[in-house]
Description:
The chain has 411 residues and is of the alpha/beta class.
Amino acid sequence: MRTMTGQPDSGGGADAQRGGGADPQRGGAAPRPAAASGRPRVPRQPGRPDVLTFGETMVALRGSGPLKLGGTMQVSIAGAESNVAIGLARLGHDVRWAGAVGEDEAGQLVLRTLRAEGVEVSGAAADPSAPTGLLLFEPRLPEVTRVHYYRAGSAGSRLTAGVVERAFSAAPPRVLHLTGITPALSPTAHSAARHALQLAKDHGALVCLDVNFRARLWTTEKAAGVLREWIPSVDVLIASDDELPLCLPEGAGGAEAPGEAGAPGGPQGAEGAQGAEKAPEAERTQEPEWAPQGAPHDTAATIASQAKLLLDLGVGEVVVKLGADGATAFTHGGALHQPAKAVRAVDAVGAGDAFVAGYLSALLDDEEPAGCLERAVTTGAFAVASHGDWEGAPTRSELGMLGAPPGTVVR
């Protein structure tokens, strides 16, 4: 596995407090370089793993039809953070996953699968007094899948700050990737995530947060309270358009409930879903205002104003997932929209995690927003066109396959 080099130091910039100079609050850690536009850059720190992520990964059972009728089930694993880790590892990055599994056969399956995919798991813990969580997928209609969670009291939900502490002590990462799922699992998991943010600051690691709101785990009010507290520590924020209000200050947009998971534009909307128009080039504007083809102007303006507010609060980059309409990245230098890739949709589950993996991969490769968005919608499209949470994640050599004409046979 190869370690990617970071962005060259630009010598400061508009966001100097994030990386242009020494920051006494970082405890002497190496400052993170920033471009002149204020865009966050991955620190150049050879020898450190590219990405550390942590959270709960469960055993996943995928039914062949309605569960009440029985039938066959396919056994795998699933978890937002481990999905991202696998996606990054397949693209050639040095990735570590920390979390807790039960001291059981299901936990062994989780760890064995991650190791087989090239993800380093030495920071994981085995809990002898709690089971590994379980996730059931029930395909109910061709376009509708029901998901059933059995994670209350699981080992993963009992994740502690000690697991995160050990992971950072072993090898501080260049990038810390968090999701809004982990703090919703339990008070101890919430504390672990908060501690990770502090450790990232102490070690000069770039912080990426994928909101990933789950209504079954917590309310919008509780989610907003946590996310608003975290925003000043976030370098790259990734969210669907209806998740953005959860990150805004109280009274600046409200904490409206995001759409249902799996709906276009919802937290698991299909980045790269079917029916999207493919544009040859991403379209750049000088101001953070954009409008995907057919999108109402007031909707676009609202998202742009929300993103600008988050940038003003200290976020270096706001990436908004728009389902079949693609995605838009907002930076202090402007906004850039990338249409989705047109593919035949098979399974939208995991598309958001694949999108994040692609975006972080390109960021680690020193790509500008256009390159990051292009790779993100590409990896998202691979997920949409494949069954499973992570099974369809592409390797680096496969990224160009989406451009092949129908019926192509690669020999």
